[in-house]
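Hi R.,

As promised on Friday, here is the backbone we talked about, encoded as structure tokens. Could you run it through your design pipeline when you get a chance and send me back a sequence?
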């Protein structure tokens, strides 16, 4: 297997070499299945590492424990993605979204996920990716024709979207920066998936003490469990590291899974509903919008 160019460890201090070799071994099975470029992050103390593949977080390992849902395991086909400029399905509205510039075509969770990330910066514990879009540009819809009747989607506003990762000793912080024209309506959400044991023994707890069982999330099926006016939640595990997810800028969280092997903890600006996508359901951009998600492993 060809060694990715981001494998900068050959120039690192000798005390890190054993750890870097361990990281390589842990990720080999995943890397063999990937054709995308991968960026490797390691915390200053060497106890945490992360792998980002074309902007997608595919590994976050704390002292050899994987915290992120792995592709190919039961549940979702991805490990993280973003939802923009809409959240949720649009089929019930014939894939049309109303904006001040007329109707546009959007599929489930918006067109941002259809755009490719460009790597703009990377070092030992930080990396940044960017996407740019020009208003009205038709984008191929990956859900067509199996799950959608629309071969292309488009949005009537320019925007630039930046996603950054910062890996510290005790947490992984993900920052999102959206630059657009003032007045652009939008929804935004982050969609990470966390690895579970499959035993249904995990639960979720808000900072205010609200308890949500994994079974109750699974019972929702395709509909996510909403937590309004919530910016922090803990995934409580009886074995291994529990995970605190603290957010900024979103205002709400929704929980989704259909299997006991994973759960998605999704910070969102708006909760999707069966109502048609229209301007009054969207946030209005001030020109620049900033969001963040902090993922912190904790031992109970």
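Update: got your reply. Pasting your designed sequence below so it's all in one thread:
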């Amino acid at each position: 297997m060809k060694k990715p160019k981001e494998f900068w460890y050959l120039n690192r201090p000798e005390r890190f070499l054993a750890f870097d070799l361990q990281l390589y071994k842990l990720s080999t099975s995943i890397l063999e299945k990937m054709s995308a470029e991968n960026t490797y992050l390691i915390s200053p103390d060497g106890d945490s590492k992360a792998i980002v593949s074309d902007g997608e977080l595919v590994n976050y390992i704390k002292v050899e424990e994987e915290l992120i849902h792995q592709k190919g395991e039961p549940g979702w086909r991805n490990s993280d993605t973003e939802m923009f400029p809409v959240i949720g399905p649009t089929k019930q509205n014939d894939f049309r979204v109303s904006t001040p510039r007329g109707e546009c075509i959007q599929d489930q969770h918006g067109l941002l996920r259809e755009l490719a990330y460009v790597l703009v910066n990377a070092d030992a514990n930080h990396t940044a990716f960017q996407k740019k879009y020009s208003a009205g540009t038709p984008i191929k819809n990956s859900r067509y024709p199996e799950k959608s009747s629309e071969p292309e989607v488009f949005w009537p506003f320019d925007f630039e979207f930046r996603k950054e990762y910062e890996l510290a000793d005790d947490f992984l912080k993900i920052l999102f920066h959206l630059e657009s024209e003032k007045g652009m309506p939008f929804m935004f959400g982050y969609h990470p998936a966390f690895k579970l044991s499959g035993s249904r023994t995990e639960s979720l707890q808000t900072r205010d003490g609200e308890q949500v069982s994994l079974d109750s999330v699974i019972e929702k099926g395709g509909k996510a469990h909403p937590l309004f006016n919530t910016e922090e939640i803990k995934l409580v595990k009886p074995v291994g590291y529990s995970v605190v997810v603290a957010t900024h800028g979103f205002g709400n969280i929704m929980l989704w899974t259909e299997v006991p092997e994973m759960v998605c903890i999704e910070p969102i600006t708006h909760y999707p509903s069966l109502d048609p996508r229209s301007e009054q359901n969207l946030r209005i951009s001030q020109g620049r919008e900033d969001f963040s998600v902090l993922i912190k492993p904790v031992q109970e």
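One thing I noticed while checking it: Residues 98 and 278 are 5 Å apart (CA to CA).

Thanks again,
M.
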